[in-house]
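#onboarding

Welcome to the new folks! Below is a worked example of what a typical request in this channel looks like: someone posts a single protein sequence, and someone else replies with the predicted structure as tokens. Don't worry about understanding the tokens yet, we'll cover that in week two.

Example request:
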Amino acid sequence: RVVLYSSQQNVSALFKTRIIPFQNGLPCVQGAREAAPGYFVSETAPMKTDRPSGNRCDASQYRESTKIPYFVIPDGLFENIGVGDVAIGYAKTDGGERMVRGIVGDIGPKHSLGEASIAFNQKLRNDLTIPMNSRDTNRLDIDLSNKEGPAGIKSMFVLLLGNTAKQLKGNYSAENIDRVARMALQTFKGEDRLRACVNDLDNK
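Example response:
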């Protein structure tokens, strides 16, 4: 963690540098041509291997949380799952089922499971409201310890399909992720098998 002090505004801020990259001693801020101008850059796993040398502030090299549905897996928990592999989110709700087709987008702390992108949670919650601040973002959390469940969600599962990242062929657009995830799910024997697995786990 780093404490940054602004003498001009007489304000101090605490940053988790694992999330927000710094360059030349300052936190990276998205530019006018990037997804969220004026907001800090979020340093998720790079989207491409040709990462610009020394330019940690180039937001285009990281996965955009509001556009790309992705799930974060703990470091070292899964042997055959890595960044880019397909991740299918499935939720049972009062009104039926909801499903989101995404990928494993990042590697998180060893003892933390359940982190996901804004787009991933939005689709499971059926809430497409654009978050404008941290309060809006935190509202998208899915806390199943609440008996009524957020947005009518009673239970939630994530299916991870290993060795599927190569099918993306370096194209991490939301459209290509959805296309590859659909094909991978069919190889898994489709939504019916997913539902059967979910029902089996739900009844235990």
